[in-house]
Amino acid sequence: MTTLGDRGDRGLWRLWVEDNGFDRLRRNNFTPGTAFTVERRAGTGLILRESVLGSCHVSSRKGAGLLSYEAGDLGSFLSVPEIRVRIHVGQIVVTPRLRMHTVARAATELWTISRTGLTTPSGVYDLRSTNPLSLLHTAGTIEAHLDEGNLVYATELIGNQRPGRVVVRGEALLLTIAGQFLRAAGYGETGTPGEFVR
Which pLDDT score, from 0 to 100, does residue 9 have? Predict the structure, then answer.
């Protein structure tokens, strides 16, 4: 999830997508210099497609891909300033973030995963246990400090719990794998690196 940026006196809304260490743009064919077109779909959002005939181009900042698209009516077209950006091979889908799609959860507990341990307000558990974990509550947020020994266990727990917010930390490769898993599970990235919400 992200927010459209208002350019003030120019009166233009700006959609800004920048690689933040995951190389999502480059890995999906949006390298610096790539041309793209913008297709507007009323009621559903925008689709930015890689195209040799496109009049817009991906630029770069400090070697990372940077996509900036500006339009005066972008905010009114999308109807809300908060949007969801999904990057696929050859296309970027931008849709309005509708709050009615967010289910209110009573769960507010913070759980932490570090090494092979899961820490909750009610205790510490071993993620490698062969028996199902008997957990009295559900997590509102899971913070996972990923390493090679807990990646599979951590993503399995997150997939079963489906908390409203997930924060992942660790080596770049592990964060890329976890990010792919989380996006496939319906999570979107926030403006904070490593933070996902659904």
Answer: 63
| Predicted structure pTM score | 0.47
Question: Are 111 and 136 within 8 A, CB to CB?
Answer: no
Torsion angle, alpha carbons of 137, 177, 51, 32, to 10: 120
What tokens appear for 102 in the block?
């967010």
Strand, helix or coil for residue 27: helix
Closest CA to 14 of 94, 124, 91: 94
Question: What DSSP letter does each residue of 143-182 carry, written as one string?
Answer: EEE--TTTHHHHHHHHHHH--SEEEEES-HHHHHHHHHHH
Write the pLDDT tens digit of every residue in 95-115: 876 543 333 444 578 999 999
pLDDT in tens, 17-38: 887 767 888 888 888 899 999 9
Beta bridge partners of 2: 83
Pairing of strands 139-145, 109-114: parallel
How wide is the angle at C-alpha 98 spanned by C-alphas 59 and 158, nearest 5°? 80
- CA nearest neighbour of 182 among 163, 93, 95, 191: 163
Percent of the chain with pLDDT over 70: 83
